[in-house]
Amino acid sequence: MGESRVPLMTIAGQWGRIGCLGFGGPPAHIALLRELCVQRRRWLDADEFEDAIAAMNLLPGPASTQLAIYTAWRLRGFSGAIVGGLAFILPGLFVILALAAFFLSGGAPGWARGAAAGAGAAVAAVAVHAAFGLIPSSWQRAGVSRWNRARWIGYFAAGALAAALTGPWLVLVLIAAGLLEITARVRPSRAAAHAWPVLLAAAPALAGIPALLWTAFKVGALSYGGGFVIIPLMQDDAVHQHRWMTDAEFLNAVALGQLTPGPVLHTVAVVGYAAAGLGGALLAALFAFGPSFVMVIAGGRHFDALRANRYVQAFLAGAGPAVIGAITGSAVPLALGAEHAWQFGVLAAAAVALLIARRGVVSTLVGAALLGVGAYLIGWPVG
After folding, report:
1. Which of 87, 114, 269, 356 has its CB surrounded by the most CB atoms within 10 Å?
2. What are the tens digits of pLDDT across the range 339-363?
3. What's the number of CA atoms in the CB half-sphere (13 Å) around residue 128?
4. How far is the C-alpha of 383 from the C-alpha of 381, rounded, in Å?
5. Membrane-spanning regions, if any (predicted)?
6. Longest Cα pair distance anywhere in the chain, in angstroms?
7. What SS3 state is found at 28?
8. Which DSSP category does 40 fall into?
9. What is the pTM of this model?
10. How far apart, in whole angstroms, are the C-alpha atoms of residue 133 and residue 104?
């Protein structure tokens, strides 16, 4: 696939526009990129764009961010990938850093704290909604075999339990599910057979990386499925292991990540701000988004071969349901992070809005924030 010669200023402007308007997470980002690249400008054909989506889903990390980088790479190579990726990421990052400074400074007014508490209370319902949206295609991928579907259920349950109970080990559970599926579907090669000792040997070395940078790298480079699967990975580190944030502050951070444009991974910048101020936020963002640039730029020419690899396909068939289970299980610690009784009422209302009334995520979070403002105005605790 050769690259087109689209001007860098055009890429900066168009990808920046998507970065400013991309409220609603990956579905919105994909729709905007398709409308731009396929329908309006005809830089890519429809089949090529769909193949790009499939290829990005083979990689760990934020799939919609990687799709933005990849499509810009297709149009202008290395320089296009850098310009397009930064234009897509930076608008939302600037917004969420400003909001982090406002909400974590300790001087936010009561109505703002109420809005954050209301939106934060709804986050657990948003997680379940995100997981439910992924189940049908993953279940269909398992096929009609009872044994395949039994394994799917097992991987889903393992991911859910890991997210709910053992946050630090979630990455290993996701990798284990993928390796088990390789063993079940394909005669394991020597490389697959020896993956376990390599993984275990690498764990102590990884643990030596400074805590904040390891947390950011982990959610950017090792989180298959992107989006909400990063939440349980971050929550245990940020709240329980290192105590950079309280449960309530973490809920607010996740809500801010949903309410701002751009990828959900921006939440890691709020964690970085809580841990080490503005410098920590920028470093966390660099370590979280950096792997996406490296993987797409270095591996873009090989994605077709990667998609056809039976070991990769088997790994994803196992890791996929574990990811969905992890997103579902993340709702448990997120719900338990609520501090006030009225927040559980907001959570219930958000669940009805998302799962029954089929409302959008952004509108549901805005409604939850307004309920939080109402709670403050009638004198209920919000801090």
Report:
1. 269
2. 899 999 999 999 999 999 998 888 8
3. 19
4. 6
5. 81-104, 116-135, 155-180, 192-217, 270-299, 311-334, 340-357, 364-382
6. 65
7. helix
8. I
9. 0.80
10. 32
Return left, alpha or beta for 8; rule: phi > 0 is left, psi -120 to 50 is alpha, else beta: alpha
End-to-end Cα, the chain, rounded Å: 54
The residues, any chain, with a CB within 8 Å of residue 168's CB and separated by 6 or more, are 236, 237, 241
Of 227, 226, 234, nearest in space to 270 by CA: 234
Listed in sequence order, the DSSP H helices in 166-309 are 170-185, 190-193, 195-207, 211-221, 230-235, 247-259, 267-299, 303-308
Coil vs helix vs strand at 83:
helix
Say which amino acid occupies 382: V
Q: How far apart, in whole angstroms, are the C-alpha atoms of residue 200 and residue 285?
A: 27
Burial state string for 363-377 with b = 16 or more CB within 10 A and e = fewer than 16: ebbbbbbebbbbbbe
- In this prediction, residue 207 has a pLDDT band, given cuts at 50, 70 and 90, of very low
DSSP letter assigned to residue 36:
I
**Residues counted in the chain:** 383
Closest C-alpha among 12, 52, 78 to residue 304? 52
Contact by Cβ (8 Å): 84, 71:
yes
List, in order, residues 6 or more apart from 112 with CB less than 8 Å away.
102, 103
3-state secondary structure of 60: coil
- Would you state the structure tokens that stand for residue 139, as one six-digit string? 């279940």
* Chain Cα centroid distance, residue 242: 21
Q: Is 381 helix (H, G, I), strand (E, B) or coil?
A: coil
CB of 347 within 8 A of CB of 124? Answer: yes
CA–CA separation, 24 and 26 (whole Å): 7
Residues 6 or more apart whose CB falls under 8 angstroms from that of 135 comprise 324
CB 186 within 8 A of CB 252: no
In 10 A of CB 322, how many CB atoms? Answer: 31
What are 162's two structure tokens? Answer: 């890991």
Cα–Cα distance measured from residue 261 to residue 24, given in angstroms and rounded to the nearest whole number = 7
User: By C-alpha distance, which of 254, 223, 255 is closest to 61?
Assistant: 223
pLDDT tens digits, one per residue of 81-116: 999 999 999 999 999 999 998 888 777 889 988 998
Q: Which two tokens stand for residue 277?
A: 């101020």
